[in-house]
Write a structure and sequence with these properties.
By secondary structure, the protein is α+β, with helices and mostly antiparallel strands. It has helices at about 10-20, 70-75, 105-110, 115-125, 135-145, and strands at about 30-40, 45-50, 55, 60-65, 80-85, 90-100, 160-165, 165-170, 180-185, 190-195.
């Protein structure tokens, strides 16, 4: 990313940042991001999720559609995403609207997950009270036995969200807090950008 001469679109620069983060050993979970939502009472909440897709249409993550985050999105689908790569002194911020991906897209991704993750998706009533870890493990074991030798279907209550790329900010840290910041905003298919003070 050339902050002195930013590209007209940030998409390829972001993809390069993802590639560089993934190849920067031993950075843990380079595609981990903080997802922030706001509930019906105006209370913000943040949690870590994993990026599972990115292109011009938006950033994709997967979750339980009955979770707290999904309930927040149902009430207010304006969300914020934050990637922080400390070793690279970089941050990437995205603001947009979260909507469910297609059933086909969720099915395709679910089929790539490890079987334990698949049964875990079925077993967990995400964000609900849990009597004990033993009960959860027993439920996973029962589901594993149920589907032994068979394909595990995706639960209807589990799938993906795509966050539109309404605002993107790329931040590169420098000594003395003389950071580089470029903020892109999109109107229709066109991007505009501004250089921000650190």
């Amino acid at each position: 990313m050339n902050f002195n001469s930013p590209p007209s679109s940030p998409i390829e620069a972001i993809k390069q940042w993802f590639d560089q983060a993934e190849s920067s050993y031993p950075m843990p979970n380079p595609l981990a991001l903080a997802l922030s939502t706001v509930n019906s009472e105006g209370q913000p909440s943040s949690r870590m999720v994993l990026l599972k897709g990115f292109d011009e249409r938006g950033a994709v993550f997967y979750t339980n559609y009955e979770s707290d985050k999904a309930n927040d999105i149902e009430e207010n689908n304006a969300v914020s995403l934050l990637f922080h790569w400390d070793d690279m002194q970089r941050q990437l911020r995205i603001q947009g609207r979260a909507t469910k991906v297609s059933n086909e897209e969720s099915d395709d991704y679910f089929s790539t997950r490890a079987r334990l993750s698949q049964t875990g998706a079925w077993a967990s009533k995400q964000s609900q009270t849990l009597k004990s870890r033993t009960a959860l493990v027993a439920k996973v074991a029962a589901l594993t036995a149920k589907w032994v030798g068979r394909k595990i279907p995706r639960p209807e209550f589990w799938g993906g969200y795509r966050v539109t790329l309404d605002m993107i900010e790329l931040w590169q840290g420098h000594d003395g807090r003389l950071h580089d910041r470029i903020r892109y905003t999109r109107v229709g298919r066109e991007w505009s950008w501004q250089r921000l003070q650190p």
